[in-house]
Amino acid sequence: MRRLDVRSGAVTTLEGAELPTRWWWSLTPGPSAAVMLRAASGRAVCTVRTEGSNGGRVELVAGDWEEEGAADGSGTAARFSAIRALLPVSGGRLLIADGPDLRCMDAGGAVTTLLRGCFPSNGVRQMALLPSGELGAVTESGDLVLISGGDFTPSAPRQPQPPAASTERLLSLLALPAEEVEGAGGSGGGIPAAALGTVTVECDGFAESGAAEVTLPDADPAAFAHLLSYMYGTAMGYPGFAPVVLEEPPELLRPTAALAGRLLMGGAVAALAERLAAAATPASVLSDLAWADAHGMTDLAERLRAFALAHRKQVKPGDLEQLAEAFPMQATQLLKALWLG
């Protein structure tokens, strides 16, 4: 696997990303696009970490390196015969073109077959979601296959235009004296902790409550800076400020999601919940579950429970004991789901 730096043109080999057998067929951004890829050989789906040490860079997520088949199942219980293309879609799901079949892996690693025989026998080379909502697939022979009716992507909610007064109040948040802005340099740098004593917020929830100001003396400046950029890029629609909440560093996911919840920023909470669910690992999932429950993120907690159950053989017993001691209700719900599942 090689990496191209589009700024310098330098090409380097990603050490430790070699397959034990055969070769890679498809690559796509992973749950944490900045540091992770989803990759597929003909019979296995993996995560490939693009940063850090070479050890453990490639992790088998579903399928088997050698054994082929068409069985649905969770993680390594599933079998594939000829994976040729991957496509991430909403809800942390991954569409998989496996020979003539369209299959799907959910955020918890469970693989199901959506359609059998929908592609030609020689398979496809690329898939994409079209503006119409249809799934388009280019076959090996250059033909186009269209699949309709799949719930592959959510409809984009309409963003209301903020009143002029709201725009001016939000713009004033960045209009700080130069000596108060740490490293801003006139280009949107970090927000100092002192600037977070009183934060003016123009969000739907606060508009309904009539509150114009919120005091957040303990807010993380870095988390607030990301949320402010999100307000500019998404809620306010300013092209110069990209919604970088989707590129949040892993260590800031929790504090930013917690702050977004306090500010009633539903869109940011949903986006960060997707990142948190996708970044879960067997080693972190019970801690993530306890955190999500403590912060009232019920949808995220439900997805993390599903992930924990799907990977229960990889979860350390000690982690479960700690969860039972500190959060008995969550442990009870896990056991109930296991019993009923």
Report on the architecture of this protein:
- Strand 12 (124-129) and strand 13 form a beta hairpin.
- The protein is built from 9 helices and 16 strands.
- Helix 3 (221-235) packs across helix 4 (253-262) and helix 5 (266-278) packs parallel to helix 7 (298-310).
- It has helices spanning 164-171, 204-209, 221-235, 253-262, 266-278, 285-294, 298-310, 317-326, 328-340, and strands at 2-4, 11-13, 26-29, 36-40, 44-49, 58-63, 73-74, 83-88, 94-98, 101-105, 110-115, 124-129, 135-139, 144-147, 198-200, 213-215.
- Helix content is 29%, strand content 21%.
- The strands form 5 sheets. Strands 7-11-10-9-8 form a 5-stranded antiparallel sheet, with no helix packed on it.
- The protein is α+β, with helices and mostly antiparallel strands.
- It comes from Edaphochlamys debaryana.
Tally of DSSP β-strands: 16
Poorly predicted runs are: 154-202, 238-245
Structural class per helix/strand content? alpha+beta
| CATH homology superfamily name of the domain at 2-147 | YVTN repeat-like/Quinoprotein amine dehydrogenase
**Number of separate helices:** 9
Label the CATH architecture of the domain at 2-147: 7 Propeller
Largest sheet: 5 strands, antiparallel
Overall pLDDT metric: 74
**Shape by Cα distribution:** globular
The CATH topology of the domain at 2-147 is given as Methylamine Dehydrogenase, Chain H
- Beta-strand percent range: 15-25%
Q: Helix-strand pattern, N to C?
A: EEEEEEEEEEEEEEHEHEHHHHHHH
CATH class of the domain at 2-147: Mainly Beta
Give the CA-CA distance, first to last residue: 39 Å
What's the alpha carbon Rg, rounded to whole Å? Answer: 22 Å
> Roughly what percent helix?
25-40%
Q: What topology, given as strand order, has the largest sheet?
A: 7-11-10-9-8
Keywords: ANK repeat, Repeat
InterPro entries: 6-blade_b-propeller_TolB-like, ABTB1, SKP1/BTB/POZ_sf
Protein name: BTB domain-containing protein
